[in-house]
């Protein structure tokens, strides 16, 4: 068995994310970014850290931090979203932030180890270990399709211009822009190229969504990888009072792995449909949308934004992690 690092805390650890009305800045302050650690927070010595790349590659080897730093340093802005509790995969969540990651392109690092043609997946391992939902875990492990690596996957060492903090994966973590946060393995120790998917519990048991057909489960599942279209209204706030007949700006953020093509504001007195202006997609950053609304009846009304991604996938009303987020306002 590998040497196990000291964890502190040595059990699940998280930070409560911002509420949507608090998501006023384009880049989320590092101190406000979601934190999700299933097993605890490894306390790590960066000097002796290395990442081993092995499996279906011609030249397996380990890279120290100093060796990784010889690759070009790049920065990538991307939304960063937790898929929510793996035991409740269809519960709506808004655990999202938007972050500037800095580090080394996995594609650059991998070029020197030469993956073999049979390799189809890359498995990633973290230094954290312990017990999750009664299951003993040697290391947190995830996988991703090899084809994704061409798409700006990073071995990251910074967040918003500062070195990663321990809870965010110091000294090095994977970042898979456009995939749910669960795939971005922190305290990255090893990457193994393989012909098939990883058989670990975080890839087989948890983080697989049932595939539905006409509202019924098919018995098949799909990995929680690409982020589905989603949005939050930042303003108006819940319980905000707005004036009858006066224009109100509704604005927020929308995001999707494929990029968001359109956002419609719905709700109001019932039949509201306003096409919002959506800023163009920039990489995998979240996209600001805004719309002007002139309320025509008084009383409590709810407002929701429905995002559609560039593939035509539509944000659903309910029963899914990316369900519409409703804000109730009062028209006076
Ligand atoms: N090694 C390891 N990596 C991990 C996790 C973990 O528990 N262990 N949690 C994942 C989950 S579910 C999420 S949402 C993101 C959160 O990253 P953050 O805490 O830096 O925001 O890390 C992912 N990477
Ligand atoms: Mo997560």
Give a verbal description of the structure.
- This protein has helices at residues 65-68, 106-111, 201-204, and strands at 13-15, 35-37, 50-55, 61-64, 73-81, 96-105, 121-126, 130-132, 135-137, 141-145, 154-159, 162-163, 173-175, 188-194, 208-213, 216-223, 230-235, 241-242, 248-255, 260-268, 272-275, 277-278, 287-293, 299-309, 326-331.
- It is mainly β and 332 residues long.
- The protein has two domains: 13-223, Sulfite Oxidase, Chain A, domain 2 (Alpha-Beta Complex), CATH 3.90.420.10; 230-331, Immunoglobulin-like, CATH 2.60.40.650.
- The structure holds the ligand Nc1nc2c(c(=O)[nH]1)N[C@H]1C(S)=C(S)[C@@H](COP(=O)(O)O)O[C@H]1N2 and molybdenum atom.
The CATH class label of the largest domain is: Alpha Beta
Helical residue percent band: under 10%
Total DSSP E strands: 25
Ends distance: 66 Å
Instruction: Spell the H/E element sequence.
Output: EEEEHEEHEEEEEEEEHEEEEEEEEEEE
What structural class do you assign from the helix and strand content? mainly beta
Small-molecule binders: the ligand Nc1nc2c(c(=O)[nH]1)N[C@H]1C(S)=C(S)[C@@H](COP(=O)(O)O)O[C@H]1N2, molybdenum atom
């Amino acid at each position: 068995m590998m040497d196990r690092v000291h964890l502190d805390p040595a059990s699940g650890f998280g930070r409560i994310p911002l509420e949507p009305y608090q998501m006023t800045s384009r880049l989320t302050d590092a101190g406000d970014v979601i934190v999700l650690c299933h097993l605890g927070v490894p306390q790590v010595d960066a000097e002796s850290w290395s990442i081993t790349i092995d499996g279906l590659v011609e030249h397996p080897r380990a890279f120290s931090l100093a060796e990784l730093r010889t690759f070009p340093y790049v920065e990538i802005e991307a939304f960063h979203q937790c898929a929510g509790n793996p035991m409740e995969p269809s519960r709506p969540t808004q655990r999202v932030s938007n972050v500037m990651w800095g580090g080394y392109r996995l594609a650059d690092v991998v070029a020197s180890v030469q993956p073999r043609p049979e390799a189809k997946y890359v498995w990633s391992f973290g230094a954290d270990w312990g017990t999750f939902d009664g299951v003993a875990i040697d290391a947190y492990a995830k996988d991703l399709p090899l084809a994704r690596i061409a798409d700006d996957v990073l071995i990251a060492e910074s967040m918003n211009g500062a070195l990663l903090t321990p809870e965010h994966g110091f000294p090095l973590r994977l970042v898979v822009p456009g995939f749910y946060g669960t795939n971005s393995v922190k305290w990255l120790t090893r990457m193994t190229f393989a012909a098939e998917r990883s058989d670990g519990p975080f890839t087989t048991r948890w983080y697989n969504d049932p595939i539905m057909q006409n509202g019924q489960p098919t018995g098949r599942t799909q990995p929680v990888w690409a982020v589905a279209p989603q949005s939050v209204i930042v303003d108006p706030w819940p319980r905000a009072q707005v004036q009858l007949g006066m224009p109100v700006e509704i604005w927020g953020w929308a995001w999707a792995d494929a990029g968001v093509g359109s956002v419609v504001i719905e709700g109001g007195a019932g039949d509201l449909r306003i096409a919002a202006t959506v800023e163009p997609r920039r990489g995998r950053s979240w996209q600001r949308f805004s719309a002007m609304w002139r309320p025509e009846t008084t009383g409590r009304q709810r407002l929701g934004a429905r995002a559609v991604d560039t593939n035509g996938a539509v944000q659903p009303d309910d029963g899914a992690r990316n369900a519409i987020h409703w804000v109730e306002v009062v028209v006076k």
